[in-house]
Design a protein that fits this description.
With 60 residues, the chain is mostly helical. It has one domain. Helix 1 packs parallel to helix 4 and helix 2 crosses helix 3. The protein is globular and about 30 Å long.
């Protein structure tokens, strides 16, 4: 999954960066971490990519 695909999935699920971080219990800087994944500043965490894919699949 690319950072752009992750961002599209998050948006399709109706989450802001911070609300997804809160949902996942990522702590105070979770929104910033997600922003860094989506911008390509940091590599996308493979577990997060898998988790958001499961969330999308359950939405269908």
């Amino acid at each position: 999954m690319t950072s752009e695909q992750f961002k599209d999935a998050r948006s399709a699920l109706g989450y802001s960066q911070q609300s997804l971080a809160d949902e996942w219990g990522m702590g105070q800087n979770g929104g910033r971490t997600i922003r860094r994944w989506e911008s390509g500043e940091r590599p996308l965490n493979p577990v997060a990519a898998y988790a958001i894919k499961l969330m999308l699949d359950n939405m269908k």
